[in-house]
Amino acid sequence: VSPKLRKKNQSSTVATLPAMAAAAAQRLLASSTKIVGAGRNYISHAKDLGNPVLKEPVLFLKPTSSFLHAGPTAGPIEVPEPLESLHHEVELAVVISRRARDVPEASAMDFVGGYALALDMSSNDLQSASKSAGLPWTLGKVQDTFTPISAVVPKSAIANPYDLELWLKVDGELRQKGLTSDMIFKIPFLISYISSIMTLMEGDVILTGNVSFSCCYTAVLDF
After folding, report:
1. Using CA atoms, how far apart are residues 144 and 66, in angstroms rounded to an integer?
2. pLDDT tens, 111-136?
3. Does the keyword section mention Magnesium (predicted)?
4. What are the two backbone dihedrals, phi and then psi, of residue 111, each rounded to the nearest 5 degrees?
5. Share above pLDDT 90 across residues of the chain, in percent, rounded to a whole number
6. How do residues 30-65 score in pLDDT, each as one tens digit?
7. Domain 3-218 carries which CATH code?
8. Domain-by-domain residue ranges, the chain?
């Protein structure tokens, strides 16, 4: 092979690396076994609620059947009858790259495959009733389509996950806006903490928390 041809082939290979990384990151979601949410993990959200800043993470689980994947064929968020009032929380999602169990915080970022933008949708009716009765939040969190999620961005494409601004609009109206630098428990700590309790599998998603106060809306809105 001539040096000129070798150089051309090398350039072509380098040019495809970002696309290959993006495709590999996106494939991770197909292997997902669970969604782990970190509640009240932003200082601004704690202030909105009038709550003290947490000393330890509050975790909850959502099934992968709640995913609403981004794309041209994606439908609207489904609102099962007789539910009316929904609560939206825009969050940075962390996608795990491989099996993780009892991971030290110092090496936790080695288990991150990529990031995505996600919504943690809740039914106000069901969640409030569960909280009042001292019951788990499950019924208000696990409905189909209650976790809309974007395409996965490879970890290599985001140099600093704490230098991101997340915002959400509904029908053009700004409802949420916040910075990931406001995160209380950072990503390495969350991975280490969660993996000390349960095994994280390839493709599992960690919702890192709601950035700020989120308003409610009634009836069905297409995002």
Report:
1. 4
2. 999 999 999 999 888 887 887 888 88
3. no
4. -100, 5
5. 59
6. 999 999 999 999 987 667 767 788 899 999 999 999
7. 3.90.850.10
8. 3-218
